[in-house]
Amino acid sequence: MSTGELDRFAAWIEELIRRRGFDIDNPRGGGKSRLADEAGVHRAAITRLLQRQSMPDLETTRRLAHVLQVPVRDMLIRSGRLTEDDLPLPSAPPAGRGDAQERRLTLEEAADGLGVAAEQREMFIRIAGQFLPDASAPVREERTPLASD
């Protein structure tokens, strides 16, 4: 990896970190520590990246992407590790294709695409599945009582 790639990536991620509300400019601001804690990584990994000493490893990149609400794909491409050709986006369905033939993502594919952490995957699938209509079940409008009822 070239110094230029590391500089470009670090500058991009610095701006992203600031936009997400982490105070990384003030030594006493605690932004680096808070980011490291939320991502579950060592503060030293954040410091080394921001000081342009080293690129984070793949797991740190994945965790930072999750906290910074950026697709892991974008992080990997911007870091220079992979190219858009290495990680192509899924092709759009051909124009005029009907809904009956349209393939929808599975919850597992959605979890992968969103970068859901392995330890949260089962919960994501269970909760997200509650929002999807069951094609075999009749549609009923039912009021669920609230705790305040």
From TrEMBL:
<dbReference type="Pfam" id="PF01381">
    <property type="entry name" value="HTH_3"/>
</dbReference>
<feature type="region of interest" description="Disordered">
    <location>
        <begin position="81"/>
        <end position="102"/>
    </location>
</feature>
<protein>
    <submittedName>
        <fullName>Helix-turn-helix domain-containing protein</fullName>
    </submittedName>
</protein>
<dbReference type="InterPro" id="IPR010982">
    <property type="entry name" value="Lambda_DNA-bd_dom_sf"/>
</dbReference>
<dbReference type="InterPro" id="IPR001387">
    <property type="entry name" value="Cro/C1-type_HTH"/>
</dbReference>
<feature type="domain" description="HTH cro/C1-type">
    <location>
        <begin position="35"/>
        <end position="75"/>
    </location>
</feature>
